[in-house]
Design goal:
The structure is a homodimer of 365-residue chains. Chain A is α/β, with parallel strands linked by helices and 365 residues long. Chain A is 46% helix and 19% strand. Chain A starts with 6 loop residues before the first strand and ends with a helix. The interface between A and B is medium-sized, with 34 and 34 residues.
Amino acid sequence: MRTGAAHDSLRVEFGARSYSILIGRGLLRDPATWADIPPATCAAVVTNETVSALYAEAVLSALTPLFRRTLVIALPDGEGHKDWSTLNTIFDRLLDAGCDRKSILIALGGGVVGDLTGFAAACFMRGIGFVQVPTTLLAQVDSSVGGKTGINHPRGKNMIGAFHQPLRVVADTDTLMSLPQRELVAGLAEVIKYGAIADDGFTTWLDTNLERLLKRDDEALRYAIRRSCEIKSGIIERDERESGIREILNFGHTFGHAIEAGLGFGKWLHGEAVGCGMVMAADLSRRLGRIASGDVDRLVSLVHRTGLPISVGSIGCETILDLMRGDKKARGGQIRFVVLESPGHAAVDSAPDDMVRDAVSAHIS
Amino acid sequence: MRTGAAHDSLRVEFGARSYSILIGRGLLRDPATWADIPPATCAAVVTNETVSALYAEAVLSALTPLFRRTLVIALPDGEGHKDWSTLNTIFDRLLDAGCDRKSILIALGGGVVGDLTGFAAACFMRGIGFVQVPTTLLAQVDSSVGGKTGINHPRGKNMIGAFHQPLRVVADTDTLMSLPQRELVAGLAEVIKYGAIADDGFTTWLDTNLERLLKRDDEALRYAIRRSCEIKSGIIERDERESGIREILNFGHTFGHAIEAGLGFGKWLHGEAVGCGMVMAADLSRRLGRIASGDVDRLVSLVHRTGLPISVGSIGCETILDLMRGDKKARGGQIRFVVLESPGHAAVDSAPDDMVRDAVSAHIS
């Protein structure tokens, strides 16, 4: 059916809510990408001002022949706008345009756009369908897959949200060519995470192919995205709502969120904080007697070669501990850590405060 | 297990999300009502200022031995507060109190409290459990059952929301004793609806027992609530997200919503508008050749004897038609009506504009 653009396709199984992840070049512009989206009277492309200028026209051209009404909603750019006010802008625009419950949303952008749009779709007239079109590496390998959507609250990130699976994920690797290098590197943090928690062979592949990824070789990127999505979807299929195994996807994130909050959100990119967080989490795993020093060194080296930070300055150890105690994944005040049992295998555990303190201190510069 | 309070119990089947509806006297205060709620670290009773003064203390006393932390969140009273600002008050209070994702909410009040609380539970940290404790007849027979939650938007009622099933529904008929008569009567509109769409025998029972219901005879109320919940849950079990059969629950509501909007929300109670809307919908069903004049007369008489309006003044026919075209249940501009195929049987259909105009005009005073 498809001609020209080479692409991979991956199926995420959620019974009646199963969906495909398409990965490859030229997908945005290809009519075949959109041909079998469920019928709707209105299709709204939700994006931000930056991405809109680059890709909204291409998506709109592909959608216009298929839907009675199409519109573009361009939001202000940045994590600071992932709030109720911006969400309400989406609702206002949809209602102004007369969109009804037979509408679909197309989330065109990075994680912020995907989270906002997915949550808007979850709530608009009690739920409509949406398609994820991630345009950053981070969104392609992580936030666009799995159905987590939401907005921030002054008291914390993603405090308000919903689990709402997309109808499809369209990861067009051409869009990565316009990505700043710092954001590409930040996206690789999550890719490294998948190897660490679920597939040591993938870590070996990353070790070997890191230069190709950093130079944006399409074949290498496509493989890394595909393998990342396979690992993530395999986990979320077993635990959609994070009541068990899904928690291991937070490897490096408990430390990482505390670093982000401690430095002030926006100073480091999420992926940068996760990179450093994985270093701390691997160190903690060693202190708990689960992995060897050599295993930690190998991960730290990969994180470092990627260009991600392996230590953090200007926050105290106790600040990080306090912030972790307030994380929404904490249960009754007890911090839960994702630790490595061996390279490629993760588990969730608690740890003595002193040991956590040592693991953090060792990576404060 | 339970002693003293006589009550009925009804099961709503949604697989792993199945739940019980308890109906009877003294349930609020009975520890057994709450004993097997799933474990949580924090239980927050969300209510309004009016209901809080009457029942919050009783519920809190029953909950305090069971949860590490309990709190009461009393919202301002009224449909005008069913908005984002009030919803955010719930989030703020929960986060201030340190409630985490292992919390549950208890919705103590009428439909507004239930819809707000249910939506807060659907969104707080991407979804926590909640218990419906409806204290109005309308909420006991309708809004507390079925998982529809949401808030209003300046452009329409319930535009933003989610389907989120409660963990349990606790309909304590003692709470109906404090209800103003006008609200009791409004609640009976939905009870009459269930007979009209699904059980002509129930309509006959209502005809015979109407005086007992209006005098708040507990046995009669309990039967009416139970039968209403049975009919509603039987329908929503087959169609949780209103993609088919569930639409028949909107009998009288397409006309009713237009009447509410046309008069200005709050002038008539929802149930009053539904009463008059059912009269128009029955009239339309007759004009479509589906039911006989005698069937219409019988329903109109029951609505009238209950004390509900059977005609509306001060809105024009065209205003009502225009408002119905903008309803969120309209599909691509086509108004969909729930009509009676025969007494106790409903279907969804469209109708010629002229016929709709006649059915409305006949009930404008």
